[in-house]
User: What shape does this take?
Amino acid sequence: MADLVQPRLLDYILQDMSARFDHALLNIGGELIHYPIHNTIFSSQSVRKYVYVTETQAVGKQILGSSLMDKDGNTLANQGLNVIKNDKGFLIGFEISVRLEATTNV
Assistant: This one.
């Protein structure tokens, strides 16, 4: 039996999902701060979103968590962190994988 779902459908799903992520919300020392999405990378079954805290931002403060948000402020993905930010850049990554199964009733 031929594959019911073609790879292009998974590409569409990943691209549509990726477009929903508008910005990140970081909990820095108990304060919620908006950050832009720094970079996006697609692979065969996943999308990776990166948020970058620059060398001069949040130095000496504790980063407690990061969330990816949609344009309406809804949380779409989140992860807890517990990092004291130093004077180096800090990259936060989210990897979201998609697995799609389809069956037919013949």
The beta strands are 23-28, 31-35, 39-42, 46-53, 62-69, 75-84, 90-97. The two ends are 12 Å apart (CA to CA).
